[in-house]
Amino acid sequence: MRKVVRPAVFFDRDGVLNVDEGYTHRPDDLRWNEGAIAAVRAVNEAGWYAFVVTNQAGVGHGHYGEKDVDIFHRHMEVELAKQGAHIDEFVYCPFHPDAKLTAYRQDSAYRKPNPGMILDLLARWPVDASRSFLVGDRDSDLEAAAGASIGAYLYSGGDLNLLVTEALKERGMGR
Q1: Do residues 134 and 12 make contact, with C-beta atoms less than 8 angstroms apart?
Q2: pLDDT tens, residue by residue, 97-129
Q3: Per the CB 3.0–4.6 Å rule, which of 28, 54, 57, 125 could disulfide with 96?
Q4: Known catalytic membership, residue 12
């Protein structure tokens, strides 16, 4: 089945969708930010793709493994589904230039502020990049969006759904 070309919202994870506890990786530690689930659902209902692009240096630093990241993302998917929302794909970067574990010690094109995760999704999914945008909580997120030539919005707390809903309207949600 051929996928339809449509815009996408690229969400950073820790600090945007969920509370950033510092190396958050256990399902029991998932605490959604205000309006996060509603924001994902709004993206879904608008007919846009919803992606997560997240640096996960905790893997490279040996705090947890890639399996733990996958388990956490599956838990997020289950919780979102209970509320009628979904993420089309999670992409993460386990690499860090100063990683404790040698296998993960590199300056990866996927690690934000580099745009690799976004560019990878743009290459593999039929995305209308001209209307797409990223929501992040750090300058490195915004730099990654600029590097991928998509829009960006800085989330600094409060109701994420309000920010996302306004951004969808600005970018022609219904077209």
Answers
A1: yes
A2: 999 999 999 999 999 999 999 999 999 999 999
A3: 57
A4: yes
